């Protein structure tokens, strides 16, 4: 038996293929093989030099497989994850891990009963745009932050596969919202006190093809107003708005895209408040006039680098008792409950008030 950590992937579509390729680049792991219900996908794996199991049962019976990554449609996550855990395998499940918090709690219960590791592939915790804005926030460079905007925009509509089917767990809240909400909850540690949301159905009526959510977090300091966070996903946007926009009392930060185009602008002189009025077609405005150049200073974004394969390394170390699991059950459950609150708010047209 190989001394490497044996892993296998169930589902060899877009993300399953990505997982397989990542594992093949890691010297700590041995990719034992994949299983896919579609014979054409199994043939594609074999053509890429990857063993394809004849059945899921054959994969789960392989003693060399210590870790199973599940990358299949959302509605199948629970049953397949439970089957793998009951076979004694440690499990990484693609996001969203389940269709409800009740399903997730059932999966967590099975993991504890079987004494195996169970986690979710929240890979966008390693996105460098997110790590950069998180660093700015945590360092307090902007002073008290009062607003954070996080968004992703596309212009091709919702994918035309299972992601546009409600029965399969489709929709952008579950597809991209799960990433953006997880990032926000990992950056802002204070409790959520309310959320108000609106869903888009531009290209698809069955599930949302975009959404906007305003989340209020409890203030860090008693007496301060709540931190307002705007989370948005759009799939019919032909002009993209910034990936991140953060406002603090002492300045602002913007990250335009995943390529980390952006900047920080901060006040350098609080005493000079005079402004040159802006002349519009209908009159003057001094309130909206920009600050003069001598009162502000522009800074580059800090450099933050990451390796998404550290997620897999952490899973291996956690299984061996050498590290704490990074993506924890209570974090996943919190994100799931926030997504449920977003869907409930959109359905009722009212804010959902509670603390998580």
Task: Describe the protein in words.
The protein has helices at 14-24, 39-47, 56-61, 77-86, 101-114, 128-139, 172-187, 310-319, 329-348; strands at 5-10, 29-35, 67-70, 90-93, 118-120, 145-153, 192-200, 210-217, 227-234, 244-248, 251-255, 262-267, 278-280, 283-285, 296-299, 352-353. The protein is elongated and about 75 Å long. It is α/β, with parallel strands linked by helices and 356 residues long. The chain is built from 9 helices and 16 strands. Helix 5 (101-114) packs antiparallel against helix 9 (329-348). A 9-stranded mixed β-sheet has the order 15-12-11-10-6-9-8-7-16. A 5-stranded parallel β-sheet has the order 2-1-3-4-5, with helices on both faces. The protein starts with a strand and ends with a strand.
């Amino acid at each position: 038996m190989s001394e490497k950590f044996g892993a296998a992937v169930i589902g060899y579509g877009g993300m399953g293929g990505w997982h397989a390729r990542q594992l093949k680049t890691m010297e700590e792991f041995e990719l034992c093989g994949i299983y896919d219900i579609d014979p054409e996908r199994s043939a594609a794996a074999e053509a890429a030099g990857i063993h394809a199991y004849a059945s899921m049962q054959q994969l789960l019976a392989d003693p060399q497989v210590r870790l199973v990554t599940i990358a299949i449609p959302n509605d199948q996550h629970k049953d397949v994850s439970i089957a793998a855990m009951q076979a004694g395998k440690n499990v990484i499940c693609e996001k969203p891990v389940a269709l409800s918090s009740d399903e997730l709690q059932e999966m967590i219960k099975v993991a504890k009963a079987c004494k195996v590791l169970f986690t979710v592939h929240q890979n966008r915790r390693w996105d460098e745009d997110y790590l950069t804005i998180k660093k700015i926030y945590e360092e307090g460079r902007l002073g008290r932050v009062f607003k954070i905007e996080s968004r992703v925009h596309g212009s091709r509509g919702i994918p035309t596969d299972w992601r546009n089917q409600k029965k399969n767990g489709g929709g952008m809240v579950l597809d991209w919202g799960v990433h953006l909400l997880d990032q926000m909850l990992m950056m802002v540690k204070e409790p959520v006190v309310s959320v108000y949301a609106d869903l888009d159905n531009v290209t698809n009526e069955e599930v949302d093809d975009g959404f906007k959510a305003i989340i209020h977090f409890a203030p860090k300091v008693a007496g301060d107003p709540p931190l307002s966070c705007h989370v948005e996903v759009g799939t019919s946007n032909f002009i993209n708005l910034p990936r991140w926009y953060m406002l603090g009392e002492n300045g602002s930060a913007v990250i335009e895209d995943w390529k980390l185009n952006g900047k920080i602008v901060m006040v350098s002189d609080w005493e000079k408040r005079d402004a040159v009025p802006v002349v519009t077609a209908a009159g003057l405005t001094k309130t909206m006039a920009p600050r003069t150049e001598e009162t502000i200073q522009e800074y580059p974004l800090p450099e933050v680098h990451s390796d998404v394969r550290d997620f897999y390394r952490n899973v291996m170390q956690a299984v061996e008792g050498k590290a704490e699991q990074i993506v924890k059950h209570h974090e996943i459950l919190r994100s799931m409950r926030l997504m449920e609150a977003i869907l409930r708010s959109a359905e009722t047209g009212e804010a959902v008030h509670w603390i998580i």
